[in-house]
Predict the structure.
Amino acid sequence: MGGVGMFAVALGKHYFGAEVTTTVSTGKMERAGQMGAARVVDYTKETYTEVLENTADVVFDTVGDAEIYRVAKHNSTAVSVAMLPDRNGLDHFRHESAPLSLFGKAKLAAAKLIVGAVGWYLTRGFRSKGIRYGYVIMSPDGSDLEKTFNPLLENGTIKPVIANVYPFTTEGVQSAFKELMAGHVAGKVIICVKD
Ligand SMILES: NC(=O)c1ccc[n+]([C@@H]2O[C@H](COP(=O)([O-])OP(=O)(O)OC[C@H]3O[C@@H](n4cnc5c(N)ncnc54)[C@H](OP(=O)(O)O)[C@@H]3O)[C@@H](O)[C@H]2O)c1
């Protein structure tokens, strides 16, 4: 349960009214319960794909493990923010700001083909169980957040966990990225632009 998973657990319970199961490492078991998880599996001690096999109506993947399809029930739904998109998901890359635009227009089609093929291969497990799979790229939407999120923050239902706050300086930004890249951050890493 990292920065994204933490909010996914809280929204799953408090916005969608779901009974949420999440995987975490040992030190985060209690925190996951506080965020709203009904069941917490320590993925460092148990093979979560075995413990949770065929139990989920909806899977939200923040890890990118191709084996996660095993957790989903047949004909259920899975959404990933961490795996590669399948062919359908490649439409997300049409925006110029998307990572694949770095290849330049001429090479974009070839890059899409490769990403699509690898994504298609990685998501074969979902197809074998008839699971609807979608890869999502977030685009921040203030008004959506205001409607969905603000009430839950304001009434204290969701309490964001802040791992660290860094100043908006070269060293501050470098340290923030170092912390993120090391993985296993407990909460959000903040860069404070304005005091
Ligand atoms: N598509 C998009 O628009 C979008 C947007 C934001 C982020 N992302 C992607 O979403 C992913 C998560 O982002 P994040 O900011 O939450 O990263 P993060 O803070 O590094 O979180 C990743 C977490 O996954 C946890 N985890 C849970 N189950 C796991 C398992 N079975 N095996 C390995 N790790 C497991 C780890 O938790 P422990 O600390 O307990 O080990 C780790 O902290 C990243 O790949 C990021 O690139 C995509």
About this structure: The chain has a mean pLDDT of 88. The pocket of NAP is lined by residues 1-5, 23-25, 28, 43, 48, 62-64, 81-82, 136-138, 183-185 (CB under 6 Å).
